[in-house]
Write a structure and sequence with these properties.
The chain starts with 6 loop residues before the first helix and ends with a helix. The radius of gyration is 27 Å and the shape is globular. It folds into three domains: about 120 residues, Histone acetyl transferase 1 (HAT1), N-terminal domain (Histone Acetyltransferase, domain 1); about 160 residues, Gcn5-related N-acetyltransferase (GNAT) (Aminopeptidase, 3-Layer(aba) Sandwich); about 35 residues, no CATH class. Helix 10 packs across helix 11. The longest helix has 18 residues. Helix content is about 30%, strand content about 25%. The protein is α+β, with helices and mostly antiparallel strands and about 375 residues long. It comes from Aureobasidium pullulans (Black yeast). Keywords: Acyltransferase, Transferase. Its EC number is 2.3.1.48.
């Protein structure tokens, strides 16, 4: 018997492939995200990726005319999910249409699937009185429009709801991004939420705030500097860094004082801040809002004396580029050594030949490099 495939089998395989393709839809193309301000769409965009939700192939099988519409209230990001199709694949044995609702359940709150119209689900009688949670940090204008950046811990009113709703977008836009678990009450003060809003107060009957982006950071506690410990650090130095969470859990207990008797709050412990999530929605990207938000986040997080370091969790290349530019700009403005750095633009052409080593010292002097380091 020949090992080659028979014409009949080849035709059958081809027919099955055609059927699969006919009933398959790109989940990236089928998912639409809209921000509503009142009854008007103010931002409309698709996801950058959907593989965390629908798998590596980013395909939904078993539907024709599939539309997955995720609507968000522009001010508080309250979600509403509507899924529709014109035709569904009839189950044949084990072959059946993808479970769309099941795939979305881990990423979108159950309330978003309520049997209400989009207008009913997003309606908010207090929308005109809405202000972002926390404290206003920075205001700026861009192309005649006003923007505000706010900061809140998750223990502040309204912050947790905004963060949980904003996180819906994380798997769709942040490579490797995950939904943050917020189960333990004692961690609420360790999470900080920064929100960026466009502000338009011309209409009196709707919220003036439209969401543009957000960032989150997490406070990680470290052991104090053993070389020059402050008085309130001495008790903590008796512990390993892995003990810090245990100390925090019993902060309000009677035994906590033996470790922390000179501290009013665990937030006074030696710490590093870690930027966990950072997102500007697609309709506002490329306008400089990311740099504005990062600069504000940076200045806010490094201001406490007990914060020794600011790190970023798994940054992508685009974020790294933006961060490098922002950090260098800050250093040039705030550090005399960096402000005086100069790059020589005239170098002997003989030193630029492919056979020569890169003339690093001719570009930036050795003394300047040593100082900058």
């Amino acid at each position: 018997m020949s090992g080659s495939e028979s014409p009949e089998n080849s035709e059958l395989v081809s027919a099955i492939q055609d059927q699969v393709e006919e009933w398959s839809t790109s989940s990236n193309d089928a998912l639409h995200i809209s921000l509503y301000r009142g009854d008007k769409v103010v931002s409309d965009f698709g996801p950058a990726c959907t593989y965390p939700i629908f798998g590596e192939e980013e395909v939904v099988f078993g539907y024709r005319g599939l539309d997955m519409s995720l609507s968000l209230a522009a001010h508080n990001l309250r979600p509403h999910m509507d899924i529709s199709w014109t035709e569904q694949f009839p189950q044949l044995g084990d072959i059946k249409a993808s479970d769309i609702r099941g795939a979305l359940d881990d990423f979108i709150p159950q309330s978003a699937f309520a049997t209400k119209s989009r207008a009913e689900a997003l309606a908010d009688p207090n929308a005109t009185n809405f202000t972002p949670p926390g404290t206003l940090l920075h205001t700026y204008t861009h192309e005649g429009r006003k923007y505000e950046i706010w900061k809140a811990t998750l223990s502040e009113d309204g912050a947790r709801e905004i963060m949980e709703n904003a996180q819906i977008l994380v798997p769709m836009f942040i490579e490797g991004g995950t939904i943050i678990a917020l189960d333990e009450p004692w961690v609420a003060d360790r999470w900080t939420l920064f929100t960026l809003y466009q502000v338009d107060k011309r209409l009196a009957n709707i919220s003036p705030y439209t969401f543009v982006g957000f960032s989150t950071s997490y406070r990680v506690f470290t052991l104090p500097d053993r070389r020059e410990p402050a008085e309130n650090d001495l008790a903590l130095l008796q512990h390993n860094e892995s003990d810090m969470d245990a100390i925090l859990r019993r902060w309000n207990s009677k035994t906590a004082n033996e470790d922390t008797h000179l501290l009013k709050s665990p937030l006074e412990l030696p710490s590093r801040e870690r930027i966990s999530q950072f997102l500007i929605i697609p309709t506002h990207q490329g306008e400089g809002h990311g740099a504005r938000l990062y600069d504000t986040v940076f200045k806010s997080l490094i201001s406490p004396d007990n914060v020794c370091e600011l790190t970023v969790e798994d940054p992508n290349e685009a974020f790294d580029d933006m961060r490098d530019t922002c950090d260098l700009t800050w250093l040039r403005k705030n550090n005399d050594d960096f402000a005086s750095l100069a790059i020589k633009t005239k170098i002997d052409s003989a030193k630029l030949k492919a056979t020569e080593n890169i003339p690093v010292d001719d570009i930036v002097s050795g003394d300047a490099k040593a100082t900058a380091r």
